[in-house]
Amino acid sequence: LVGNPSAEDLGGYLARIGSAEKKMKSIHWRLAGIMGGALLIRCLFLQSRGIQYDDAFSIFLSQRPLAQIVSGTAADTMPPLYYFLLHSWGLVSGELWWLRLFSVSLSLASIALLYGVTRRLAGENAGLWAALLAAISPLQIYHAQDLRMYALTTCLVMGYLYFFVRLWQREGRQRIGDWAGVILCSAAALYAHNLAGFLLLSPYVFLLFRKAWKWIFRLGLAHTASLVLFSPWLILLPGQVEKIQVAFWTPRPGVVEVIQAGLLSAANLPLASNWLLTAAILSLGSLCLVGLEWWRRRKNLGGVALLAWAAVLPGLLLFLLSYLMRPLFVPRAFLAAYLAWDGLAGWAIWQAWKKGGGKVLLGLFVLAAGVTLPYQLTFSNFPRSPFQAAMVDLAAEQQAGDVIIHDNKLSFFPAHFYAPGLAQKFLGDEPGSTNDTYAAISQQAIGLIPQESLEQAAEGYERVIYLVFMQTLADFEALGASQHPGLAWLESRGRLERVESWNDFQAYTYRMEPVK
User: Fold this and answer.
1) 264-301 tens-digit pLDDT
2) Which DSSP symbol is given to 91?
3) Residues contacting residue 235 through CB under 8 Å, at least 6 positions apart
4) Which residue from 167, 188, 223, 514 lies 20 to 30 Å from 53 (Cα-Cα)?
């Protein structure tokens, strides 16, 4: 509108402004709908869905004073930030739905950040498709209800990528706030998960292929500042690395683990056995279609290459590292990489939409979610066995002089959460075994101490209710043992009154008799 515009020029200008505003409102409404749907799915069975050992560990540790949280995490394998935040969140309420809502909130924030990253790199429509894929992702939904640090780590890594992209696209007019975002999100991610550093490296590879040496130097300086902020925990890191060497029980990754990691790109585990092949085909199909679209446009990817590196690099590094030290190829550790994959898939859907390939790709993701989510949300076997139902039944049957003894911590921790008033004890892990992950200092910090032996745990009680997983019994049988050693000891000291089962674990009730 230079000079003296005519009424027709002015009208056309105002019409274009109105059209742009209408388009933006439409985009905002669509994004709001996606976020609302994501919230709804993540809140399904928020209170009733069972917890597992790791969830209960997080709850019990987060309830302790901050100094004990520090000592408890220092002896474990993870830094303390998540437990600090859950501690503050739990001051409002200790109800399970409220505690889980913290991870749900972080998951929603991650989706919003993914939208922001993808929108800046590939456009509004790609950003909306990416947000939709993340909203229905069974993997993201599963960890949105986990009481662990994975949703927090994912949110912080996505925040780091978001601020980096803003800086990259604002060459010459960068803002100190964006650099602060890069530094703080990186440092906080390190305080959230000890493997988070591998999730921060993708921009370096992106810059390396562009020969952006000045940017590599700048980002290196920013991460130096992040390490300075992380330095108070660095003195404790060697002990945690040593703990990781012993405590991580995952197998060294091979073909099976790689296929499983690919399955998680659109589906998730656990999964009903009759749907496993279908989910694998759907996930493999989505991987192939996204890869095909990437290959077709490989010479003109632009900033989308950052999404590709963020999706592939963390898993690749952890795969290689698993052959240099203890296996660390754990998909939940690079959950942010799967979000980046959703961003790349959102870009592929939009690029191939008019020719029909995008519709097929979207259909594969939707079908994979539809196959996975019903089973996932109602799953009630190990490690999420029906502990609450078992505790309700046992509490109704408990008599004076009874004690519940758990074969291990994996059933005791969730059971103690649901029934803290019941007399319950648990046996310690075999020292030096791959199950020996509950450090003595962590025990002192939480205040839940295992028993040294079944004899010590049962002493002075008239009846013993012994809880054990069926898989544990099967494992002993596979080793050639005629009977589980705990049950053998109880058989020699008492009389079996009844056996109760809840899905995949059992309770053996023994009336203890005086030793002759």
Assistant:
1) 999 999 999 999 999 999 999 999 999 999 999 999 99
2) T
3) none
4) 188
